[in-house]
Design goal:
The protein has a single domain, classed as Rossmann fold, CATH 3.40.50. It is built from eight helices and seven strands; from the N terminus they run βαβαββαββαααβαα. A hairpin with a 5-residue loop joins β3 and β4. α1 crosses α7 and α4 runs antiparallel to α5. The longest helix has 13 residues. The radius of gyration is 17 Å and the shape is globular. The N and C termini lie far apart (41 Å). Bound molecules: adenosine-5'-diphosphate (ADP). Adenosine-5'-diphosphate binds next to α1 and α7.
């Protein structure tokens, strides 16, 4: 869909968050051209808030980044913006899109990457317990939750565009995806 001109969308800054492997990058590619995509790590690096953790991997100082963005983002963007990153919901955005996928789907997708087993397990567990929602409980802005294990990138794009063109209504999913509940209700 790159370069396409689409429906008129509200001028908001959106976070695209979710456990690694839920499809944030893939959905961003689909939405490219319809909204302005910003990668959270690149944004952090540009602003000087990407450091090294003890293990030598890059870590975003999300608090520092948020503090300067509150001022920089005090007026609406010229084009609808989407910040792709698993910590993007902690930035001063106007609304949040959270991607979910069944832990078994995440497990399979992350095994295709050169992630260590422990890192895969950590992410699978985080998704299993609904970790992404734990950090959203206190947040009082519209949230759209989508399952990338069920919807393909094209269907996800349609859902996002519909939600945005309805001014982010409904403000919350009727029911949050709960994998543990899902597993408990199945006969094994
Ligand atoms: P993230 O950026 O959240 O870590 P990616 O966008 O890299 O996730 O997607 C992880 C993997 O899942 C990729 O192989 C991608 O092609 C696949 N994928 C992403 N979204 C979907 C989808 N909606 N349906 C099926 N596969 C998907």
């Amino acid at each position: 869909m790159s370069g396409a001109s689409g429906p008129e969308l509200p001028l908001l800054r959106l976070a695209l968050t979710g456990t690694p492997g839920t499809g944030k990058t893939r959905l961003s590619e689909e939405l490219q051209g319809l909204v302005e995509i910003q990668n959270q790590s690149i944004l952090a690096e540009t602003k000087g808030f990407l450091g090294q953790d003890d293990g030598g991997s890059k870590e975003i100082d999300v608090e520092g980044l948020s503090t300067i963005l509150v001022e920089e983002w005090s007026s609406p963007p010229e084009k609808t913006q989407l910040i792709d990153g698993h910590l993007s919901h902690l930035l001063p955005v106007d609304a949040i899109i959270i991607l979910r996928a069944h832990p078994l789907v995440i497990d399979a997708r992350l095994h295709l990457r050169d992630y260590e087993e422990q890192k895969i397990l950590d992410n699978v567990e985080w998704e299993m317990i609904g970790g992404p929602w734990l950090e959203l409980e206190e947040i009082d802005i519209p949230i759209l939750e989508l399952d990338s294990g069920v919807l393909d990138p094209n269907e996800l794009t349609t859902e996002v565009l519909n939600w945005l063109s309805q001014d982010c209504a409904p403000e919350r999913p009727a029911e949050i995806l709960d994998w543990l509940d899902d597993m408990a209700s199945k006969d094994w």
